[in-house]
């Protein structure tokens, strides 16, 4: 378990730009040392803001996009192309404008895909895809992602792991179907905390006053069942990237 590190930026625009620059550097370094890189994307306004900032960054061409694997931390279980799907929003923000290898873009199944409306079967298929990509050096059922991005919800949820729901209590499976989510749509697919913790680095993004209480709770010793963000950490690094508004209620001791 890595100790959380905090970086606070003046506003959400600076946060997105700085996070994009940081991510470019991390990807380039991983590709230089291992030949390829893997990143887990997140949706929401902060995740999409980071991708849009990356698309606009002059240094984006330093990345060898053909040697980058992209995964998702969660997905809204909706039909392919639905504007609310995280992958649809990611394509609009960045993915359609860079030369990715389509075989290395690992979108979660849609509700009109081969598994129909069976979210559990779709989750099992994604878990199998992760396991297939995990090498012997990963020592687990998922790859050792270089960076796993997470947005912070006002209720402290990350990915689609909501407080007290069964998914946040999962300790064995790497991907689960989520039912009865408190925000629409109610059915989702999500990585579990064990899968999140396989990442080398976990970056949590939070901007806005509506995230301030959640950030304070998650960083003040709350339990992961009540505050899922508290249980999201990387093997070597856990980085909280906040704007001043989201950091406004943090204890002075942090």
From TrEMBL:
One of its GO terms (biological process) is carbohydrate metabolic process. Pathway: Carbohydrate degradation; pentose phosphate pathway; D-ribulose 5-phosphate from D-glucose 6-phosphate (oxidative stage): step 2/3. Residues 11-240 form the Glucosamine/galactosamine-6-phosphate isomerase domain. Keywords: Hydrolase. It comes from the Bacteria. SUPFAM superfamilies: NagB/RpiA/CoA transferase-like. Belongs to the glucosamine/galactosamine-6-phosphate isomerase family. 6-phosphogluconolactonase subfamily. Hydrolysis of 6-phosphogluconolactone to 6-phosphogluconate. PANTHER family: 6-PHOSPHOGLUCONOLACTONASE. This is 6-phosphogluconolactonase.
């Amino acid at each position: 378990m890595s100790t959380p590190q905090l970086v606070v930026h003046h506003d959400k625009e600076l946060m997105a730009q700085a996070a994009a620059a940081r991510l470019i550097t991390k990807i380039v370094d991983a590709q230089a040392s291992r030949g390829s890189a893997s990143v887990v994307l997140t949706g929401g306004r902060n995740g999409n803001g980071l991708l849009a900032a990356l698309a606009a960054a002059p240094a984006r061409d330093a990345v060898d996009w053909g040697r980058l694997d992209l995964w998702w931390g969660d997905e809204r279980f909706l039909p392919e192309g639905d504007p609310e799907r995280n992958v649809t929003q990611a394509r609009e923000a960045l993915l359609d404008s860079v030369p990715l290898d389509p075989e290395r873009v690992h979108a979660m199944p849609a509700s009109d895909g081969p598994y129909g409306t069976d979210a559990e079967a779709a989750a099992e298929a994604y878990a199998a895809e992760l396991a297939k990509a995990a090498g012997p050096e990963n020592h687990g059922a998922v790859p050792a992602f270089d960076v796993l991005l997470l947005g912070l919800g006002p209720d402290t949820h990350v990915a689609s792991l909501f407080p007290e729901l069964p998914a946040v209590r999962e300790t064995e499976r790497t991907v689960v179907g989520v039912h009865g989510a408190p925000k629409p749509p109610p059915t989702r697919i999500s990585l579990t905390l064990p899968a999140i913790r396989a990442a080398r680095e976990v970056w949590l993004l939070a901007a806005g006053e509506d995230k301030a209480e959640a950030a304070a709770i998650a960083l003040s010793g709350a339990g992961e069942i009540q505050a899922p963000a508290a249980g999201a950490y990387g093997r070597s690094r856990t980085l909280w990237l906040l704007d001043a508004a989201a950091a406004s209620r943090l204890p002075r001791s942090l």
